[in-house]
């Protein structure tokens, strides 16, 4: 049973690493395209840096278990994240679609870290708990920021559209 729990935990860690890699591939193009929503760009830049550190924390946990991340999973999820970002870039309401998708993705990450914490506790991987909680806290912070700012971003989008200004990004 202990080996099953370890295997499940390692798989979850590799999935989380790939998930964070996907997050980077989603955030980076958004940052490069934002012109009219500086508050969003600033927060995305901050979260991009947080995500890089989150990946390092996951790599450290994996290394402590004599494991490493899955290059294939990282590549596949990075590619799907890039495609999702490209899809939104064609929309007239790109900033809103990105906001909705980012909000949903943050909650996906929150769920993943909550599950990893349960696996860490059940598997006796106490040394990983602080790092996983730190990652969870940062994801919750980003989700909260997105929630708190959706009204402002939406209102700014609508006002720009009504004024005939570029509202997209």
Question: What does it look like?
Answer:
With about 170 residues, the chain is an all-alpha fold. The chain has one domain (about 1-160): Ferritin, core subunit, four-helix bundle (Ferritin, Up-down Bundle). It has helices at about 1-35, 40-65, 70-90, 95-125, 130-160. The longest helix has about 35 residues, at about 130-160. The protein is elongated. The N and C termini lie far apart (about 50 Å). The mean pLDDT is about 90.
Task: Provide a concise account of the structure shown.
The chain is an all-alpha fold and 169 residues long. Helix content is 84%, strand content 0%. The protein has one domain (2-162): Up-down Bundle (Ferritin).
* Shape assignment: elongated
Give the beta-strand count. 0
Low-confidence stretches: none
Examine the secondary-structure arrangement and name the CATH architecture: Up-down Bundle
CATH topology name, in short, is Ferritin
Largest pleated sheet: none
Count of spatially separate domains:
1
Beginning-to-end CA distance, first to last residue: 51 Å
Per CATH, the superfamily is Ferritin, core subunit, four-helix bundle
Strand fraction equals under 5%
Radius of gyration from the alpha-carbon trace, in angstroms: 18 Å
H-E string = HHHHH
Number of helical runs?
5
Structural class: mainly alpha
Please report the first level of CATH classification, the CATH class.
Answer: Mainly Alpha
Keywords: Coiled coil
Organism: Rhizobium rhizophilum
Coiled coil: 41-68
Protein name: Ferritin-like domain-containing protein
